[in-house]
Specification:
23% helix, 21 helices, six-stranded antiparallel β-barrel, alpha+beta, elongated, 740 residues
């Protein structure tokens, strides 16, 4: 029996035992009466036979299960409007919501503490999802909801995305005026393991009292009745007629959706498998972040975070959060004293902390300042610049951008110049054992994902041994002969802790892995397997008057992993070959937060992945009309280089259902940029169908990747929505209503 049918059978078996009379009445009501036109439908007959078989402790046939699911399940999971904080149902199976006063009072109290997450001033998002009060001034929602307006993971370095705001409205009821929107003041936590985030809000209304997380372990309990309370939106993943029937064609208002728990099940979440709660409430997009209320206690038993239509929904179990000392210390309320402590996912917290520490160490001073050094002949002095940087002009000009953009007065003399000037040093790399490099692994995900191929093989630069591909540790590169850059790269990426830090006691910062001193500047080096005529030398980037960044096409942090420290270090060093470099206009691969301008696309893609691994293909887009830059390649020699204005990447992940692939393009408009005076440009991120991406890249993706393209699927629409990425092409019907 298929998984969905098995789940339906198990659910109906429990339901038949606990609510036999109600099920009989519901089944009778679902079938056509004597006045109905035409003979009884086959689906009704099969559904009735399936229920009778279950009640007789017999296993129904697959056809009977399918019919029963279609007829019965939509009718046992109702949706109740919440109006003026109250609710009512005519559903025969849920009359206790009307008649049982203790249950009603528990739910009415919870309703007041649950609100809609708003995104003020953002025309692209109707709203973000649902949140609820779970501590003093503390709102809980999903990590993937918070990702719309925040960046970072953990607690130390999480913040708002530039230009984004968030708030919460505890009203938003059917046919009622909106309430005040309370502004989110701070991102308190983005959990690195569970799909959970905490937000700080001031001025919560008195009746929006903090809810409490239950510490009940419902793993083996049968038929615990719950209610998801939140703000469901029209969801293109689901049948439109069923949604319109259940929700009366009104979405985005507060609803109460009763159902039952179904034990625990492992499911995908941000590149890992988590042991989530199962439930069958009629949730839709927009319910993400909803509180799952235990009808018997009024406590929050789980945080709803997703599901699959006509299969099952998932929630973060409260008992698991109670075992996390970080969550307890953050001020989350629990029913009873939460144990806290060090949970099984502590490594994920460690990774979040270490990532922050490593990033600060790599900047050299533990601060958020970006330091750039440019050689100019000028008079001495210091000047505050309009962009918040400080310009110090001695014989050496130093631009320092401070994190807060505050005006500063700095004096300097030539005596300190030597200490600031960085020496050009090649990072440590293994140049003696290229034969050991296996390159990109097509079986990295457990399903074969071959490398792309050049659409025109003749453009590829051959190695000295006549090969088309340069293999490195954990990645491979195919070089475009005329453009002297990578045509495309193929890399295996993982965040697995045992591979990112395979040996205790070692330092894994960029400086430590590269063997550089604090004042050393990275000097990239050519690949001896490829003729120099096919490689842009490092000196091109260091003598271009600061016009270009040396941009990693394969990011160092992506492929710096291995079963041993030595293998990891080899991979780190391999990324500094000039074959992996592409001249990117200064600022192209930067942001004010120190992140690359691709944003957190990988994190969004991994939301639904079953492992921390993914395959990535990337490269520049070579246009015939690319601008030509005349630079220096050493001494008095000059070199003419066409500068790509666009870059692309394809991310491939594995899910429970197979492969998923996503294609993106990052571009900037250089039409107004002088190639004598470079200025920052506006960047545009696009999701693009893989067939269209093939046309502009000169690269042919393997059929397994093209067939897994999510561009036209609801998963692709959702990812673009939450990552703030435009979709390059016509929108899919119903796309505007997709919210998680």
């Amino acid at each position: 029996m298929a998984g969905s049918q098995e789940q339906t059978a198990q659910y109906l078996e429990k339901f038949a035992r606990h609510k036999k009379a109600a099920l009989d009445a519901l089944l009778a009501a679902a079938q056509p009466g004597i006045e109905s036109p035409g003979p009884p439908r086959e689906i009704d007959r099969l559904a009735a036979e399936g229920v009778r078989a279950i009640q007789a402790n017999k296993r129904p046939s697959n056809d009977q299960i399918a019919a029963t699911e279609a007829i019965i399940l939509p009718k046992i999971r109702p949706v109740l409007d919440v109006v003026d904080g109250d609710f009512h149902t005519d559903h025969p199976l849920w009359q206790k919501l009307n008649d049982d006063q203790p249950t009603r009072q528990r739910l009415k109290k919870a309703v007041k503490s649950i609100g809609r997450l708003e995104l003020p001033g953002n025309p692209d998002y109707p709203y973000g999802g649902t949140g609820f009060v779970i501590g003093d001034g503390l709102i809980m929602t999903n990590r993937h909801v918070a990702a719309i307006f925040s960046t970072g993971v953990g607690t130390r370095h999480v913040s708002f995305r530039p230009g984004f705001r968030a708030g919460i409205d505890f009203r938003r009821e059917l046919d009622r005026p909106t309430g005040p929107t309370l502004e989110v003041k701070r991102i308190a936590m983005v959990h690195p393991y569970w799909d959970m985030a905490l937000l700080e809000v001031e001025g919560l209304p008195q009746d929006a009292a903090p809810l409490e997380f239950s510490q009940l372990d419902p793993g083996g309990a049968a038929m615990i009745e719950v209610a998801a309370i939140g703000y469901p939106a029209f969801d293109t993943r689901n049948d439109a007629d069923v949604q319109n029937d259940l929700f009366h064609k009104v979405f985005g208002v507060k609803r109460l959706q009763p159902g039952t728990l179904g034990g625990r099940q492992s499911t995908e979440s941000f590149g890992k498998m988590v042991d989530a709660l199962r439930h069958n409430c009629s949730t839709l997009g927009g319910n993400s972040g909803s509180a799952l209320i235990d009808l018997n206690t009024g406590s929050v038993i789980g945080l709803h975070f997703g599901g699959r239509y006509e299969k099952i929904n998932y929630a973060v179990p409260g008992i698991e959060l109670a075992r996390d000392g970080r969550v307890v210390d953050a001020g989350v309320h629990f029913s009873g004293a939460a144990p806290g402590g060090t949970p099984s996912w502590a490594d994920w917290w460690q990774d979040a902390d270490d990532e922050t520490l490593a990033a600060r160490e790599e900047r050299g001073d533990g601060s958020s300042a970006r330091r750039t050094v440019q050689m100019q002949a000028s008079q001495g002095g210091a000047q505050s610049m309009p962009d918040g940087s400080i310009q110090i002009v001695v014989p050496l000009q130093i631009n320092i951008r401070l994190g807060g953009g505050a005006s500063q007065t700095i004096t300097a003399s030539t005596d300190g110049i030597t200490a600031v000037t960085e020496a050009m040093v090649a990072p440590w790399h293994d140049e003696d054992n290229y034969a050991t490099r296996k390159g990109y692994d097509a079986n990295f995900l457990g399903i074969e994902v071959p490398m792309p191929k050049p659409a025109t093989p003749s453009v590829v630069a051959k190695t000295k041994d006549g090969d088309d591909v340069l293999h490195y540790q954990n990645f491979s590169i195919v070089t475009h002969a005329q453009r002297r850059m990578a045509l495309f790269t193929a890399s295996n990426v993982t965040a697995e802790a045992k591979l990112k830090k395979p040996e205790a006691g070692k330092k894994y910062t960029r400086k430590a892995l590269s063997g550089l001193a604090d004042n050393d500047q990275e000097r990239w080096f050519p690949d001896p397997r490829l003729d120099d005529q096919f490689q842009l030398p490092d000196v091109f980037y260091t003598r271009d008057d600061g016009a270009f960044d040396k941009g990693h096409i394969v990011r160092r942090e992506d492929v710096a992993w291995g079963k041993t420290y030595q293998l990891l270090r080899v991979a780190n060093g391999d990324t500094y070959h000039v074959t992996n470099c592409s001249p990117q206009v200064a600022g192209f691969n930067r942001s004010t937060l120190g992140e690359d301008n691709w944003g957190d696309l990988e994190d969004h893609v991994l939301k639904g992945a079953s492992s921390e691994r993914y395959c990535q293909f990337a490269g520049p887009v070579f246009d015939a009309g690319d601008e030509v830059f005349v630079g220096r390649a050493g001494g008095k020699a000059t070199v003419r280089v066409k500068i790509p204005s666009r870059y692309w990447k394809v991310i491939v992940v594995r899910t429970d259902d197979g492969l998923q692939s996503f294609g993106f393009v990052l571009e900037q408009n250089l039409s107004d940029v002088s190639f004598e005076e470079f200025a920052p440009a506006q960047f545009k991120k696009l999701m693009m169908p893989l067939p269209e991406l093939q046309k502009i890249t000169g690269v042919k993706f393997p059929p397994v990747v093209v067939n897994a393209d999510q561009y036209a699927t609801n998963e692709g629409i959702e990812l673009a929505f939450h990552a703030g990425v435009r979709r390059a092409g016509p929108k899919t019907a119903g796309e505007e209503g997709v919210i998680l």
